[in-house]
């Protein structure tokens, strides 16, 4: 249980750092932004989607997240931001599934009347079980439009990903992925939103057995509400993902591989004090596949404390 003996000190460190930084950040015009999160997670069935790995085991984990950002340019027409994100999971027993992610990003946008033209670049480097695992380069241009009524925002984007695994044994999974997405956001009174999304993906791996065409559709809601004189936020979402593999996937079984996944997620965020908030989240995954390793159910519960300015 050494993982959890560190939990209290880590949260305390976040609190002390936040109290000092929030005093410096009293000026809301600061170009700097930062956030941190420390929490407990229970996963009933730890999986690694990128390599079709399903442990069949549940475990507790300490979750640590952090992000910093800097607005290089920020005015009515032009915006340019750069940032860094960090994620770490520390499992109690199955430490070979510990994830560490370092993410670097730069995004810019230019507004013309009711249109927003955007471009984002991201680089994520991922360790699995303390070993180098996967690097992902992404570039995403986008076009957004606010309709005349000002209560519906439409967004269309294209994303290119270059995925490269560190292990020679996984080189067949190295891939180039092209995705196109459309999203509609309905802006309602009192900060409530409803979002609908559709994404088509074409995933081309070095080994055709891992190549697929995917369709994802999802909906989500955000509902602020009053809780003991504070504004808490409820979020809920549902996503359906369908992947079709080609005839080369017959190496897995006596039929072509098909994956279907239903994902339900709900969360509540409650403000505490000085930029701190408590968060509870539950996620349920129903994965249906002709590949036995990906035919499973999974529940993930997360509780923790976050801070941001």
Task: Show the helix and strand layout.
Blueprint: H1 2-5, H2 7-24, E1 32-43, E2 47-48, E3 53-54, E4 59-74, E5 78-91, E6 99-112, E7 115-128, E8 131-146, E9 152-165, E10 175-187, E11 193-205, E12 212-227, E13 230-245, E14 258-271, E15 276-289, E16 296-308
Antiparallel strand pairs: 1-4, 1-16, 2-3, 4-5, 5-6, 6-7, 7-8, 8-9, 9-10, 10-11, 11-12, 12-13, 13-14, 14-15, 15-16
Tags for this entry?
309 residues, mainly beta, Porin, two-stranded antiparallel sheet, 16 strands
Protein described:
This protein is mainly beta and 309 residues long. It is 7% helix and 66% strand. The chain has one domain (2-308): Beta Barrel (Porin). It contains two helices and 16 strands. It is globular, with a radius of gyration of 21 Å.
